[in-house]
Amino acid sequence: MKNKTAVPTTVYEGRYLRMVERGSWEYVERTHASGMAAIIIAVTPEDKVVFVEQFRVPLQASTIEMPAGLVGDIHAAESIELSAIRELEEEAGWTASHAEVLMIGPTSSGMASEKVAFVRATGLSRVGAGGGDADENITVHEIPRTQAAAWLVQKMAEGYELDAKLWAGLWMIDHQLDGTPRG
Question: Are 7 and 71 within one domain?
Answer without folding.
Answer: no
